[in-house]
Write a structure and sequence with these properties.
about 30% strand; Aminopeptidase; about 240 residues; single chain; about 35% helix; seven-stranded mixed beta sheet; 2 domains
C-alpha cells in the first residue's frame, strides 16, 4: 500500500472521481486551498482510499474548536475507501494528519460523522469509529435542520460556495432540499510533537464536557445477552454440583 499526495491535475481528478463513486456526499469542494491524499494498491496502482482536507467552512464552526485560534482550524472534508481493512484506513488517515500538520497554518483538523449514514461494511450508524481509532478528541453532537445541500438533475450540490452560502431564494425552485442531521464532532491536534502536545491539552480542556455515547447496536446487544446466558448456565451447574 502506497500513500501519496496528489499534486497534479490528473492525480486530483482521479481522487475526485474516486470520491464521487465511493463517498455518498461526492467529491466536495474543489475551490480554494484543498489538500488531496490517496492510498494506492502496490499491485496495480489503483486508488483504494482517498481524503481531502481544507479550511473549515465558517468562522463560527472554527471558533467552537479553537476559540481565538480559529484561523488555524482545517477540516477533513471527505474520506472514502474501497476494499481495505479498517486498520489500513486508520493508518492512512493518521498519515494524512501528519502530512497536513507540516503546514504551519494548520493547528487543528476537525471533522463530522453524520449519524444518518451507515457503514456499509457493518451496517451500523456512522458515528466516527475510524476517528476515535486515530485518537481524535470527541467534541459533542451537533443538532441542526438547516438546508445543507440540494439535488438537481440527479446531482447533489452543496449550498456552501467557498466563503459564501447560498440563500434559499438562490436555489432553483425545482431542486430537492437536503436538510442537516445530527453529527458527531471530532478534532485532532496536529503539528510538531511539542506543539501538538500543548494544542491537544488545550483542546481536551475545551471539550471535557462532551462524552461519546454509542448508537444502539443490535449485534452488541446479542453478544451481551449470550454472555449473560453463559453466566446463568454456569451458576446453574454450580448449584447442581453442590
Amino acid at each position: 500500500m502506497l500513500f501519496t499526495v496528489a499534486t497534479t491535475p490528473d492525480e486530483r481528478e482521479a481522487v475526485n472521481a474516486f470520491l464521487d463513486e465511493h463517498n455518498p456526499r461526492g467529491r466536495g469542494s474543489t475551490r480554494g486551498y484543498v489538500a488531496y491524499y490517496a492510498a494506492t494498491s502496490a499491485a496495480d496502482g489503483q486508488i483504494v482510499a482517498a481524503a481531502k482536507l481544507c479550511p473549515l467552512h465558517t468562522p463560527q464552526s472554527a471558533r467552537f474548536f479553537a476559540g481565538e485560534d480559529w484561523r488555524h482550524v482545517y477540516c477533513l472534508q471527505r474520506l472514502a475507501a474501497q476494499g481495505v481493512a479498517a486498520n489500513v484506513l486508520s493508518r492512512f488517515l493518521a498519515w494524512c494528519l501528519r502530512q497536513i500538520g507540516r503546514d504551519p497554518r494548520v493547528w487543528y483538523v476537525a471533522t463530522f460523522a453524520d449519524s444518518a449514514t451507515f457503514d456499509t461494511r457493518h451496517n451500523r450508524p456512522h458515528n466516527g469509529g475510524i476517528y476515535r481509532a486515530t485518537n481524535a478528541v470527541y467534541c459533542g453532537l451537533t443538532r441542526s435542520s438547516r438546508v445543507e445541500a440540494y439535488v438537481l438533475d440527479g446531482q447533489r450540490h452543496s449550498v456552501r460556495r467557498g466563503p459564501k452560502t447560498l440563500r434559499l431564494s438562490e436555489i432553483p425552485a425545482e431542486a430537492a432540499l437536503i436538510r442537516g442531521t445530527d453529527k458527531h464532532r471530532y478534532c485532532w491536534a496536529v503539528g510538531a510533537p511539542l506543539q501538538r502536545r500543548f494544542r491537544l491539552r488545550a483542546l481536551q480542556q475545551r471539550m471535557a464536557q462532551y462524552h461519546f455515547v454509542p448508537a444502539y447496536q443490535p449485534r452488541l446487544l446479542i453478544r451481551i445477552l449470550r454472555r449473560l446466558r453463559i453466566f446463568t448456565l454456569c451458576e446453574v451447574v454450580c448449584e447442581v454440583l453442590k
